[in-house]
Specification:
Blueprint: E1 9-16, E2 26-27, E3 37-38, E4 41-43, H1 50-62, E5 66-79, E6 84-95
Parallel strand pairs: 1-6
Antiparallel strand pairs: 1-4, 2-3, 5-6
C-alpha cells in the first residue's frame, strides 16, 4: 500500500488517570477521527523524545501538566481511504498537579 510516497507518521497519546481512576479523553478535532473520543496527544516532531512529545501535546490540548512514565502500547494503523499511515505510541502518564483540571481547547 502506498501512502503518498511518505513515511508513516508517528502519533503519541497519553493515557492519564486521576485518583478516582477516571481516564482523560476528549473529542478529536483533527480530520483523522474527527468527532470521535480519544486520548490527548499529537505528532512526534523531528528529534523529539516520546515522553517530551506527549507531555507537550497534552499541555497544549488540555492545559494539564503531566509526566509520561511508560510506553504501554503501539499500533500500526493504515488508512488507505485517507492515504495515511500511522504508527501510534500509547503512554501511561500521570498528572504532576493532582488538583489541576483539564481545560477545553480549540
Amino acid at each position: 500500500m502506498a501512502c503518498n510516497g511518505l513515511h508513516p507518521r508517528v502519533g503519541i497519546f497519553a493515557i492519564v488517570s486521576d485518583e478516582q481512576g477516571r481516564i482523560l479523553i476528549g473529542r478529536r478535532l483533527s480530520t483523522l477521527g474527527k468527532g470521535h473520543w480519544g486520548f490527548p496527544g499529537g505528532h512526534l516532531e523531528q528529534g523529539e523524545d516520546f515522553f517530551a512529545c506527549v507531555e507537550r501535546e497534552t499541555l497544549e490540548e488540555t492545559g494539564l501538566e503531566i509526566r509520561a512514565t511508560k510506553v504501554v502500547g503501539l499500533t500500526n494503523d493504515k488508512f488507505p481511504e485517507l492515504d495515511k499511515h500511522y504508527v501510534t505510541v500509547f503512554t501511561k502518564s500521570e498528572r504532576t498537579k493532582a488538583q489541576q483540571e483539564p481545560q477545553v481547547s480549540n
